[in-house]
Write a structure and sequence with these properties.
This protein has 8 helices and 21 strands. The protein has 363 residues and is of the alpha+beta class. The chain folds into 2 domains: 242 residues, 3-Layer(aba) Sandwich (Rossmann fold), CATH 3.40.50; 111 residues, no CATH class. It has a 6-stranded mixed sheet, with helices on both faces. Strands 13-12-11-14-20-21 form a 6-stranded antiparallel sheet. A 5-stranded antiparallel sheet has the order 15-19-16-17-18, with no helix packed on it. The longest helix is centred in the middle third of the chain and has 18 residues. The protein is elongated, with a radius of gyration of 25 Å. The protein binds adenosine-5'-diphosphate and magnesium ion (MG).
Length: 363
């Protein structure tokens, strides 16, 4: 099912009539989620991800704008009638019911023409449980399950009604690191197997990048950029997006362009054809540094960390806007001097931004 958002806006009125200001939680969000894809809705806490998801689910009414499922305008439709499955961060299972009863619950609540025979309900519950690999645990209570297992039950419960759209709001946040990795792969597998259009909300860029067909990056209610994860990483539209994506994060410097050359700390480090003379903010991806005995960018060496295949070089530079400069270089790299490390730069890993409005300056 294709999901289309048209100029979706949500404004929360101020709580305090005199001094409080209204909150524009989501501001003019227009986007089409193609049928059968997994979309990662990504941004820092408070940027409007949950509000967007709740509007798509029908739990919250937009202040303005429209939502379409396929060709149907569902903006005024109640949550029960939208055919969505919803999974929250806290699994919200019924503690006194078994896993089986929890998964059956949405089916038992179906009314009128939607009502299913008991045998079919059971069959569907077992199919959903099998899909998330908890069919061995059907007679346990939630208290007898691990966090990862509980979250699988919540996903099975969302899938049992065969939703047209699956909405996941930070579903992995309560899991430990290893389970989080494992469960996100599971979600990807389930999504591919079922082909359900899925919107996955997270503040964790790595999580979104690893499982999404497309990501949508939000800041303060406003969509900053949409695209395939690698596309957005390789071609960020502004400094916010460049900084939000990537581990280790992008390195940021104060710089200046003169006669189509980029200067950092008064030293020309890169040709930037077509860029007018101006002050800029420079972003350099960790993999954009090439150790080079004659390289123009000279950093003061702090430490060299070997991380399996990669070597991470930690240094400082007077023009860096972060406390450290972290590069990722080849493992055959050997430091020649104890005090400094010199780099040349890979042009396609260097991004320039306007000093004031932080938009991208292309070269
Ligand atoms: P996210 O899920 O990205 O962390 P939310 O969508 O929950 O962000 O919130 C977006 C903004 O809207 C925040 O500033 C939040 O404080 C505000 N907000 C969310 N829900 C309400 C509400 N019911 N009443 C007032 N303000 C709200
Ligand atoms: Mg949220």
């Amino acid at each position: 099912m294709k999901v289309e958002l048209r100029n979706l806006t949500k404004i929360f009125p101020s709580r305090n009539k005199k001094s409080g200001e209204e909150v524009i939680a989501v501001n003019d969000f227009t986007f089409t989620i193609p049928d059968g894809k997994l979309i990662g809705l990504l941004g820092p806490s408070g940027c409007g991800k949950s509000t967007t998801l709740y509007m798509i689910s029908g739990l919250q009414k937009p202040t303005s704008g429209q939502i379409f499922f396929g060709e149907d305008d569902v903006t005024e439709l109640s949550a029960e009638n939208r055919g969505i499955g919803l999974v929250f961060q806290n699994y919200a299972l019924y503690p006194h019911m078994t896993v089986k009863q929890n998964i059956l619950f949405p089916l038992q609540n179906l009314k009128g023409a939607d009502k299913l025979p008991k045998a079919e309900m059971l069959q569907r519950a077992y199919e959903a449980a099998k899909l998330v690999q908890i069919d061995e645990l059907m007679d346990r209570k939630p208290g007898e399950l691990s966090g990862g297992q509980q979250q699988r039950v919540a996903i099975a419960r969302a899938l049992v009604k065969m939703p047209k759209v699956l909405l996941l709001d930070e579903p992995l946040s309560n899991l430990d690191a290893r389970l989080r990795l494992q469960t996100r792969e599971e979600i990807r597998r389930i999504q591919k197997e079922t082909g359900i259009t899925t919107i996955f909300v997270t503040h964790d860029q790595e999580e979104a990048m690893s499982i999404s067909d497309m990501i949508v990056v939000m800041k303060l209610g406003v969509v900053q950029q949409t695209g395939r994860p690698q596309e957005v990483y390789d071609d960020p539209t502004n400094l916010f997006v460049a900084k939000f994506l990537g581990t280790p994060p992008i390195n940021v410097f104060a710089g200046e362009v003169k006669s189509e050359k980029l200067y950092i700390g008064g030293v020309a480090v890169l040709d930037v054809p077509g860029v007018e003379d101006r002050e800029v903010t420079v972003g350099i991806r960790p993999e954009g540094f090439v150790p080079d005995a004659n390289g123009p960018l000279v950093c003061k060496l702090n430490s060299v960390e070997v991380m399996g295949r990669d070597v991470s070089v930690v240094s400082t530079h007077a023009s860096s806007l972060n406390p450290i400069v972290r590069s990722i270089v080849n493992s055959d790299y050997r430091i020649s001097s104890e005090e400094t490390v010199r780099y040349s730069l890979k042009s396609h890993k260097v991004f320039l931004f306007d000093r004031r409005d932080e938009t991208r300056i292309r070269f």
